[in-house]
Amino acid sequence: MTAGGAEDLGISTDSEVRDQALAWSRLASDYERARAREDSLDRLTEWPAQRRLLGDVTSKSVLDVGCGNGGKLIELVEDGALNCVGLDISDNFLTPTAGLSLVKGDLSELGSVSELAGRTFDRILFLQSFGYSTDPVRTLRSARKMLAKDGFILLSRTQPIRYAVERAEKNGTSLGEEYFSSADYSYSNGWNDQITLSKRPYTISDLLNEFSAAGLWLESAAEPQLPEDARQRYPHKQAWMNRYLGILIFKLRPLP
Ligand SMILES: C[S@@+](CC[C@H](N)C(=O)[O-])C[C@H]1O[C@@H](n2cnc3c(N)ncnc32)[C@H](O)[C@@H]1O
Atom 14 of ligand 1 has which residue's CA nearest to it? Predict the structure, then answer.
């Protein structure tokens, strides 16, 4: 895996989740280095698409759950967002600007993060971080409670078909067998090959059912692709996208 996009490496059992702060504190700087490369899929495709779906953020408060170093939030504050909070289990944070606090915390326990108590936000982001929740529906319900009037959640996850393709290539099996398999699998990530992580497979219906169970409706979805100039400049990235598809982005609103 060498795409350099903000791929989520889900570590899903409770004991594995307990280890993820450690894993991410070891991975954080490698991840940010990969993300900063000029041919990173996050730079070329994912963040531009996420940013487009967020729209005008002037005077909007934003909570970025699993914010990494906080770089995306800093850009949003520069674009006019106010009173923003970034939360991440690793504390590999950039220096926060005015109007932004960056907090160490676990996204599976949003209700216990003191800096979030009594707060509401106009936008809540889960950008390639939702897969780390031990209880996805509970996490989304907690986020839903923190939405201000007219607020929405923007959530992106790796296309699950991508992992099924990887496993089918590795195991000599078929796409369908792997896509519908429920067995965890381990692999080394593309940012630091010394760290092996395990992942719980998921399907697109798993995701949609989680949104629904959390009382959210899907306003729109996107599957961003490389823009034409980037396809020409980085054919290896287009080849990767042709094989593994990229990410899904969902704009979710609370049911009344
Ligand atoms: C693939 S990175 C995405 C970072 C950033 N959202 C982006 O789009 O570039 C996943 C992030 O989730 C964070 N993370 C993993 N488990 C977490 C947890 N239990 N609570 C909070 N953050 C977590 C990691 O530290 C990492 O920064």
Answer: 66
Percent of the residues in the chain that have a pLDDT greater than 90, as a whole number: 73
- Tell me the CA–centroid distance for residue 108 and ligand 1, in Å: 12
The whole-angstrom separation of Cα 154 and Cα 200 is 22
Rounded to whole angstroms, the Cα distance separating 191 from 27 reads 7
Q: Which bin fits 149, alpha (ψ -120 to 50), beta or left (φ > 0)?
A: beta
pTM: 0.92
Residue type at position 165: V
C-alpha to C-alpha distances, 235 to 88, 195, 240, 243, 245, nearest whole angstrom: 33, 28, 9, 12, 14
Domain residue ranges of the chain, discontinuous segments joined by +? 14-159+203-254
Between CA 17 and CA 21 the distance in angstroms is 8
Ligand 1 probe mutation, 32, 129, 189, most atoms within 8 A of CB:
129
CATH code matching the domain that covers 14-159+203-254, chosen among 3.40.50.150, 2.40.37.10, 3.40.50.880, 3.30.870.10 = 3.40.50.150
Q: Which residues contact 21 (CB under 8 A, 6 or more apart)?
A: 89, 90, 106
Average pLDDT value for the chain: 90
Across 13-26, average pLDDT: 66
Q: For strand 121-127 and strand 147-158, is the pairing parallel, antiparallel, or unpaired? A: parallel
- For tokens 């940012």, the residue is 191
